[in-house]
Specification:
Blueprint: H1 22-36, H2 45-53, E1 64-65, E2 72-75, E3 84-90, E4 96-103, H3 114-122, E5 126-128, E6 131-133, H4 138-144, E7 152-162, E8 168-179, E9 182-185, H5 186-193, H6 201-204, H7 209-229, E10 240-245, E11 248-254, H8 259-281, E12 286-290, H9 297-306, H10 317-330, H11 335-346, E13 350-354, H12 381-395, H13 403-436, E14 443-452, E15 455-460, E16 466-471, E17 481-490, E18 495-500
Parallel strand pairs: 1-8, 2-9, 16-18
Antiparallel strand pairs: 3-4, 4-7, 5-6, 7-8, 10-11, 12-13, 14-15, 14-17, 15-16, 17-18
Length: 501
């Protein structure tokens, strides 16, 4: 940016930003943060040219034609990069056949192509307040490789057979030509499933989809029950979503898990596990997404003890989940803060390589031992890698990746996803500081979310933002309710400072 350009895009230009430039300010902060963290905010010309010249992929003789099935998608209201669609069929023995179609991104993003090289650099789409930095050019991710409504698209299908009790008793994989018959949104579907709203308009227009979604929800509940029995953790952390009016930031609202999101999550976990097992059976080394056994289990034991719950000395997800479930029932207001503390002590996920014949590293938080990322190839590079492995296994070809290549990619993808998460957090903090500008001196009810030698942090509820207590923080403990006064905000650095009243 030169001095002659609009100075309102520079967060350092004025302590009080014109609301009309909120989005531009956040985009400036995000772009700089991406470059600071080794990510590319813009596509190189060769990648854009590749996307511009691309044509829809139609497949070949080995592709099944499943366009007549009643496929539907459920995603965010404004999502255009649709990675997956689903359809189910009840079988005569009470089991249900679940078909999950995943966009065949690899068909239009050959390995080593300009688009592929950019995607390998960033490894993920970056979602920040006011903007999205997609991993793939939008000509692909929101069109030619998106399973959008009423268009023919190539997909890689995972066909699961789920027993009435929720066990996956069969899995088949193949390529297919599909057509999304009904594009649905999480909020509308969740409200309908919960009985809080009428049948969504999009669902009412396509006969049979309502019955489909009800059956899918039943299967998802059964799949979830099996994972809960195995010790999958019950967690709920507060994620905020920016609300804009034009380019003006108006609010931050909680983006909570709902029944429709849980449905899709359960299907994706089942599909990812089935893909991992299939590739291992074919003798393929695979990139797994893992959350290893917590290094700080003794601190989790101490945390549970503070809340009157006893955990065993050795790491075990089942009693940990029993503690979390109890807190969710008895103290739902503070449950997100307990969840956040548990997430931090468990540690972040990472990519690892599993070699057939060796014990898989597993995923502590999901209580599964076979888990790869395969269901979001428009948004995550590891999913493109897994898709290439899966297509090779389906076709009877050898693995397209050598073991050393997979290990290097796993390390790189872990590092880049961590950097992307830092960018998202940084911009989220700047958005929160921006929203509170002009409210210095106001008091808020808050809850302590962190207390250590590095400082004390609290979260207020309206808007749901977190800040540091810079005065009178002595003696505060996690979970304690407190009254705080806003002392200072710094949009450029994302600082929000409170003083205890």
């Amino acid at each position: 940016m030169t001095d002659s350009q609009d100075s309102t895009l520079d967060p350092r230009s004025s302590p009080a930003q014109d609301s009309r430039s909120n989005r531009g300010t956040l985009q400036f902060i995000a772009r700089q943060a991406m470059m600071d963290h080794g990510l590319e905010p813009e596509f190189p010309p060769a990648a854009l040219e590749q996307a511009r010249a691309a044509e829809p992929a139609c497949g070949d003789g080995g592709v099944r034609d499943l366009r007549d099935l009643l496929w539907s998608s459920i995603d965010n209201d404004d999502s255009m990069d649709l990675d997956q669609i689903e359809v189910t069929e009840r079988l005569s023995d009470g089991a249900v056949k679940v078909l999950i179609g995943i966009a065949d991104v690899d068909a239009l993003v050959p390995r080593g192509s300009p688009v592929d090289r950019h995607a390998e650099t960033n490894t993920t789409s970056v979602y920040v307040a006011g903007n999205i930095y997609p991993m793939l050019p939008e000509r692909l991710s929101t069109d030619l490789t998106s399973l959008g409504p009423d268009v023919d698209r190539l997909a890689v299908v995972t066909e699961l057979t789920v027993a009435p009790q929720g066990e996956v008793i069969g899995a088949v994989f193949y390529r297919a030509l599909v057509r999304n018959r009904c594009k649905l949104a999480y909020r509308a579907v969740a409200a309908w499933l919960d009985g809080r709203a009428e049948l969504p308009h999009a669902m009412a227009e396509v006969p049979g989809v309502a019955e489909q979604i009800k059956l899918q929800d039943q299967v998802a509940l059964a799949l979830r029950a099996v994972r809960r029995d195995q010790g999958a953790l019950t967690l709920r952390t507060i994620q905020s979503q920016a609300v804009f009016e034009g380019d003006a930031l108006r609010d931050l609202v909680p983006d909570d898990m709902d029944q429709a999101k849980a449905l899709i999550e359960d299907f994706m976990i089942a599909a990812n596990g089935a893909v991992a097992r299939f590739l291992e059976a074919k003798g393929f080394a695979t990139m797994r997404r893992v959350v290893k056994v917590p290094k700080y289990w003794e601190r989790l034991v101490a945390l549970a003890a503070e809340h009157g719950f006893t955990l065993p000395a050795q790491p075990d997800p089942r009693p940990l989940n029993a503690f979390l479930s109890a807190k969710q029932r008895t103290d739902p207001v503070h449950f997100p803060d307990v969840s956040l503390a548990v997430v931090k002590l468990i540690g972040s996920g990472e990519y690892d390589v599993n070699v057939p014949g060796q014990p898989p590293p597993g995923h502590f938080g999901l209580a599964v031992r076979d888990y790869t990322h395969s269901t979001a190839p428009n948004r995550r590079y590891p999913d493109i890698i897994t898709q290439r492995l899966l297509k090779a296994a389906i076709d009877g070809r050898p693995s397209p990746y050598a073991l050393d290549e997979l290990r290097a990619l796993a390390e790189h993808c872990t590092a880049q996803e961590d950097e992307a998460a830092k960018v998202e957090r940084q911009v989220g903090k700047s958005a929160a500081a921006m929203l509170l500008q002009g409210r210095t001196g106001e008091t808020f009810d808050a809850i302590v979310t962190g207390a250590s030698e590095k400082g004390t942090w609290v979260r207020i509820t309206a808007p749901p933002v977190e800040g540091k207590v810079v005065r009178n923080d002595r003696g505060l403990t996690v979970g304690q309710q407190v009254r705080v006064r806003l002392a200072r905000t710094d949009v450029a650095r994302g600082f929000i400072d409170f003083a205890r009243v």
